[in-house]
Amino acid sequence: MDDLQGLPAAPLTVVAGQAACAALDVAANAATAADLVRRAADRGGDLLVLPELFLTGYELAGIVADPTRHVPAPGDSRLDVLAAACAATRTAVVVGAPARDAGTGELRISTLVLGRDGHRAARYDKQHVTPGERAAGFGAGPRGCTLSLDGWRLGLGICWDSGFPEHARAAVRGGAHAYLVGAMFGRGNGERQLATVFPARALDNTGYVLLANHCGPSGPYDGCGRSAVWNPDGTLLCDAGTDDPGLAVARLDPAVLAGARSREPVLVDPSLDAPVLPRSGGTV
User: DSSP characters for 31-71?
Assistant: First the structure.
């Protein structure tokens, strides 16, 4: 585990990816994700982040109707193409997918993390589910998740998590240097939300913030794209616009992070947030 109070020694290139996904077709979406991994690697990416429920689309009713088919299990062969792309390019990926609680079988909205070797490294379950998601049959995850990659600590969030300032704050107080979110923000009000929330999360916590958002219709929504990365001072670093496929490629710089935090010190004490948002870790 990295020193929670330390800063990374070298830059890291992260990529927010977006592309149209096929409703409830895990194999097709895994192939699309693999293509995005290769595109990200061609642009120097160390880690690619993809939107919420990317492997199925935001198809809550369909997932609930047949979870055995639509929830990728550990070792699911449909993800082999994605694992192979990660291993071939040495690029890690964070991809949205439905999951099940191992103890209760309750459905979760999750992100799966595949490391540079293509093996599963971690899973994060969305902690702040919307009323509609809860009504559809999805439960909230019990804890946060912070990844370690090349000396960078990366806190994970999913869509509505980002609307709760304490969620990102728990990640940063636990040592995170960046906050990575896969989401479904639709056109209109969703565009206004993301343009407000994500710079605020960056500025509040003097950390990098990344958003990977859907860029087309999925379930009841029409994703507005705008996958992007913000600097620790809240300014926009890069934006994929509405491209399909689209990538927002950002170089996270330890010097920039150090400069921001020297002006606005971050108190790192993971024990302060553990009772409310306990966090788990993984290395990718």
Answer: HHHHHHHHHHHHTT-SEEE--TTTTT-S-HHHHHH-HHHHS
Strands 236-239 and 246-252, sheet pairing = unpaired
Structural domain spans, the chain: 12-283
Q: Which CATH class, in words, describes the domain spanning 12-283?
A: alpha beta
> What pLDDT, on the 0 to 100 scale, is given for residue 266?
65
Name the amino acid, one letter, at 205: N
DSSP 185-205: -BTTHHHHHHHHHHHHHHHHH
How far lies 188's CA from each of 81, 92, 170, 241, in Å?
35, 32, 29, 14
Return the biggest CA–CA distance within the chain: 51
User: For residue 136, what are its two tokens?
Assistant: 């559809």
Q: Per-residue pLDDT tens for 4-56?
A: 358 999 999 999 999 999 999 999 999 999 999 999 999 999 999 999 999 99
User: DSSP states of 94-145 as a string?
Assistant: EEEEEEE-TTT--EEEEEEEE-TTSSEEEEEE-SS--HHHHHHTEEPPSSEE
What's the first-to-final CA gap in the chain, in angstroms? 12
**What pTM value is reported for the model?**
0.93
